[in-house]
């Protein structure tokens, strides 16, 4: 996840120093950034694999399914020329793109599973209950169901399951029932529609907004985040050469559980980090949205 200030390149990549320490990018090496976002981590990696003297053959495959973020990354990384290959797609399809672009064996892979501040701060994307806008939540706005499609069509049981499983929402069933009742009168179109519906079930108390878990759960369902991760991990490991490392930053306990289990169970991997690496107090102060980040690293043997 990257925090974004007034300057579109004024990002704060999460756990950047730790990512560089564990991936240890060096000249002439090849890397994959499966969630390049707006290019913060990628820029730091490229600065090391392609030094100022451009005689190095270091390369990076930059993938993202968000066209807007990818466009910003292209501007940010334009100075690295053909050392970067940009792909507009989900990292779940990484193997096909890697083989087609000369990344059959790479030295390091990064996944940053957080969504950027640009998603939260843009009302038109529909990720946040803090700004009213179309109830969308798709990273790739050219395909797939929106959050509105889901809340307007899925059954009570399906909605309750999503809120319980992905949002760990105690009142999942009650919220699902409220959604069913509301959509009989008028379909959901805006983020405010859903936020107000949830607040009728869970009155607001304290700092945490009652709709937080529901919006998180819908975002994960809309983008099939756990499914994409589970499908991608085996292919990513296949692309690592012996001695290569994979670093994954997660922001949700369910994601972290999938990553931890997979990395520990793969016989061709050795855990580099026994426990997840978390941000320092200084980083959290500088970038509060980094507070739930966890970094796990494994090496191919």
The CATH homologous superfamily of the largest domain is called Vaccinia Virus protein VP39
The percentage of residues in β strands lies in 15-25%
Record field, number of beta strands: 9
Supply the number of helical segments. Answer: 13
Main sheet, how many strands, which sense, barrel? 7 strands, mixed
Mean pLDDT: 92
Percent range of helical residues: 40-55%
Biggest sheet strand line-up: 5-4-3-6-7-9-8
For the record, the count of structural domains works out to 2
Report low-confidence residues grouped into runs of 5 or more. 1-8
**CATH architecture call of the largest domain:** 3-Layer(aba) Sandwich
CATH topology of the largest domain: Rossmann fold
Taking the alpha carbons of the first and last residues, their distance comes to: 29 Å
Q: What structural category do the secondary elements indicate? A: alpha/beta
The topology string of helices and strands comes to EEHEHEHEHEHHHHHHHEHEHE
Outline the structure in words.
- The chain is an alpha/beta fold and 301 residues long.
- It folds into 2 domains: 2-117 and 225-300, Vaccinia Virus protein VP39 (Rossmann fold, 3-Layer(aba) Sandwich), CATH 3.40.50.150; 140-222, Orthogonal Bundle (DNA polymerase, domain 1), CATH 1.10.150.170.
- Helix content is 43%, strand content 16%.
- The chain has helices spanning 16-23, 40-49, 67-76, 94-100, 117-121, 147-153, 156-167, 172-185, 191-201, 212-222, 225-239, 253-265, 281-286; strands at 2-4, 11-13, 30-33, 59-64, 84-88, 106-112, 240-250, 269-271, 294-300.
- Strands 5-4-3-6-7-9-8 form a 7-stranded mixed sheet, with helices on both faces. A two-stranded antiparallel ribbon has the order 1-2.
- Strand 4 (59-64), helix 3 and strand 5 (84-88) form a beta-alpha-beta unit.
- The longest helix is centred in the last third of the chain and has 15 residues, at 225-239.
- The chain is elongated, with a radius of gyration of 20 Å.
């Amino acid at each position: 996840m990257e925090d974004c200030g007034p300057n579109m390149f004024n990002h704060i990549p999460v756990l950047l120093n730790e990512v560089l320490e564990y991936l240890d990018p060096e000249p002439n090496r090849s890397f994959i950034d499966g969630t390049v976002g707006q290019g913060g981590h990628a820029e730091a990696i490229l600065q090391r694999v392609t030094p100022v003297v451009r005689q190095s053959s270091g390369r990076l495959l930059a993938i993202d399914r968000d066209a807007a973020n990818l466009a910003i990354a292209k501007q940010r990384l334009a100075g690295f020329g053909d050392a970067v290959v940009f792909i507009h797609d989900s990292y779940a399809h990484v193997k096909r793109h890697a083989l087609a672009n000369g990344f059959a064996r790479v030295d390091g892979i990064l996944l940053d599973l957080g969504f950027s501040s640009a998603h939260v701060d843009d009302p038109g994307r529909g990720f946040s209950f803090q700004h009213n806008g179309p109830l969308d939540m798709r990273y790739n706005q050219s395909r797939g169901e929106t959050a509105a499609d889901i809340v307007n069509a899925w059954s009570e049981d399906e909605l309750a399951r999503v809120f319980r499983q992905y949002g760990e929402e105690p009142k999942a069933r009650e919220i699902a029932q409220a959604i069913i009742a509301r959509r009989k009168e008028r379909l959901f179109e805006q983020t405010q529609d859903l936020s107000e519906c949830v607040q009728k079930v869970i009155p607001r108390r304290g700092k945490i907004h009652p709709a937080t878990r529901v919006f998180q759960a819908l975002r994960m369902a809309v983008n099939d985040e756990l499914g994409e991760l589970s499908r991608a991990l085996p292919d990513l490991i296949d692309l690592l050469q012996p001695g290569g490392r994979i670093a994954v930053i997660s922001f949700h306990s369910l994601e972290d559980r999938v990553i931890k289990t997979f990395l520990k169970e793969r016989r061709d991997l050795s855990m580099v980090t026994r426990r997840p690496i978390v941000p320092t107090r200084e980083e959290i102060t500088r970038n509060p949205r980094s507070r739930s980040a966890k970094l796990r690293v494994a090496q191919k043997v």
